[in-house]
């Protein structure tokens, strides 16, 4: 099969880690007989420098005409003093919106060779864990009506948590679909004991579940869920939740894996199209030094193969190669500890390709 992929390397370490991910895809193409066409596009600070905007129309068009997008990272101190609408990060928010990407998928996987990087007690993580947070990305309190007004207590401000049945339905569907490709369990997280929006949320999740009888569903209140993530992370498979709860819980879950350099993500909308990126930023402190960990971006292309192209075998083979390289003791600086072998960005990529 042939796939057209928009490639947005971005700023800082973005181009370095993206390059390694593309080499991995090329190898997958050779081994499994697919062809990947890469179409490069500009976004972020580099786009501002060359085109005067962090997200040129040409980039949006390239993305819309592709089967999926891989993005490195954007931003850096060079552009920190630009006004909000010209900042590199704005390009990123805008691109997700332009492409209708309402589901943010963040797996938090503890690779067994990296056990020491997890802040939890060894007995809690025996055998590792593999959590996939499915966060609603374009609704809820971050997008609801907000403002300031006078109240009985003087000046006040408010934000509104608003969810429509349609919004909940589509994110719940995504979670159930993803669960089918994994352990087949979904935990819904809300605050239905207090919030009306959460009561609607839970009703719709339950109703949507009727179409997925093969997937197990349970519910947790968000405060309990925050505690359970630390107490017993292994109980979770797929987690579905609102924009705000997902923002907080996905950061909590990601820290359990130790390094930001290991964590991929996907933003999905209707259909198979998706935007894939590491969760880390442009790491200006190590940019251009061959120090960045490319595994988060490499694991992001594995997600692309799984979610956008239905190439499960190919995706798993990338994950297995990453596991093998770590088991063999190779580490970039962010995950290095005594007794392991320190390698640079390019060498880490080469080892994954080889495996
Ligand atoms: P950051 O994620 O870029 O870096 C935080 C720390 O983690 C740094 O010490 C960095 O060296 C390290 N680090 C990050 N990725 C790494 C990797 N792959 N390998 C090894 N070490 C890694 O976050 P920071 O410093 O807050 O932001 C830097 C710039 O990136 C800012 O301009 C920020 O706005 C932008 N940013 C962009 C994001 C994106 O494009 N999705 C997300 C987060 C931040
Ligand atoms: Mg956040």
UniProtKB/TrEMBL annotation:
Its EC number is 1.1.1.85. GO terms for cellular component: cytosol. The lineage of its organism: Bacteria, Bacillati, Bacillota, Clostridia, Peptostreptococcales. GO terms for biological process: L-leucine biosynthetic process. Homodimer. This is 3-isopropylmalate dehydrogenase. The keyword DNA damage does not apply. Belongs to the isocitrate and isopropylmalate dehydrogenases family. LeuB type 1 subfamily. Substrate binds at residues 96, 106, 135, 223. NCBIfam families: leuB (TIGR00169). It comes from Paramaledivibacter caminithermalis (strain DSM 15212 / CIP 107654 / DViRD3) (Clostridium caminithermale). Binds 1 Mg(2+) or Mn(2+) ion per subunit. One of its GO terms (molecular function) is 3-isopropylmalate dehydrogenase activity. Pathway: Amino-acid biosynthesis; L-leucine biosynthesis; L-leucine from 3-methyl-2-oxobutanoate: step 3/4. It is an enzyme of class 1 (oxidoreductase). NAD(+) binds at residues 76-89, 281-293. Its cofactor is Mn(2+); Mg(2+). Pfam families: Iso_dh. Catalyzes the oxidation of 3-carboxy-2-hydroxy-4-methylpentanoate (3-isopropylmalate) to 3-carboxy-4-methyl-2-oxopentanoate. The product decarboxylates to 4-methyl-2 oxopentanoate. The keyword Cell membrane does not apply. The record marks 142, 191 as: Important for catalysis. Keywords: Amino-acid biosynthesis, Branched-chain amino acid biosynthesis, Cytoplasm, Leucine biosynthesis, Magnesium, Manganese, Metal-binding, NAD, Oxidoreductase. Residues 4-352 form the Isopropylmalate dehydrogenase-like domain. Mg(2+) binds at residues 223, 247, 251. InterPro entries: IsoCit/isopropylmalate_DH_CS (IPR019818), IsoPropMal-DH-like_dom (IPR024084), Isopropylmalate_DH (IPR004429). It comes from the Bacteria. It catalyses: (2R,3S)-3-isopropylmalate + NAD(+) = 4-methyl-2-oxopentanoate + CO2 + NADH.
């Amino acid at each position: 099969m042939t796939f057209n992929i928009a490639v947005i390397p971005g700023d800082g370490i973005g181009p370095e880690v993206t390059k390694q991910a593309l080499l991995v895809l090329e190898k997958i193409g050779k081994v499994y007989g697919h062809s990947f066409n890469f179409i490069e596009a500009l976004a972020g600070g580099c786009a501002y420098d060359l085109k005067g905007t962090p997200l040129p129309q040409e980039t949006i068009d390239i993305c819309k005409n592709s089967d999926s997008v891989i993005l490195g990272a954007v931003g850096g101190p060079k552009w920190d003093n630009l006004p909000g609408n010209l900042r590199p990060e704005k390009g990123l928010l805008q691109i997700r919106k332009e492409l209708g990407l309402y589901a943010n998928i963040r797996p938090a996987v503890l690779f067994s060779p990296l056990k020491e990087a997890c802040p939890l007690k060894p007995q809690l993580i025996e055998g590792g864990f593999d959590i996939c947070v499915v966060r609603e990305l374009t609704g809820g309190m971050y997008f609801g009506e907000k403002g300031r007004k006078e109240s009985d207590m003087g000046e006040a401000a408010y934000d509104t948590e608003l969810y429509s049945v349609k919004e909940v339905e589509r994110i719940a569907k995504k979670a159930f679909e993803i669960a089918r490709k994994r352990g087949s369990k979904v935990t819904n997280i809300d605050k239905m004991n207090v919030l009306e929006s959460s009561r609607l949320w839970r009703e719709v999740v339950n109703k949507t579940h009727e179409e997925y009888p093969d997937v197990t569903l349970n519910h947790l209140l968000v405060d309990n869920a925050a505690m359970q993530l630390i107490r017993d992370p292994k109980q979770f498979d797929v987690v579905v939740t609102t924009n705000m709860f997902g923002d907080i819980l996905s950061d909590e879950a990601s820290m359990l894996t130790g390094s930001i350099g290991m964590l991929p993500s996907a933003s999905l909308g209707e259909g198979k199209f998706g935007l894939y990126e590491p969760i880390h930023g442009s790491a200006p402190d190590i940019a251009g030094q061959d120090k960045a960990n490319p595994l988060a971006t490499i694991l992001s292309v594995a997600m692309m193969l799984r979610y956008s192209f239905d190439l499960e075998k190919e995706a798993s083979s990338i994950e297995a190669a990453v596991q093998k390289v770590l088991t063999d003791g190779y580490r970039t600086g962010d995950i290095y500890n005594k007794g392991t072998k320190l390698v640079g960005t390019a060498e880490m990529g080469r080892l994954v390709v080889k495996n």
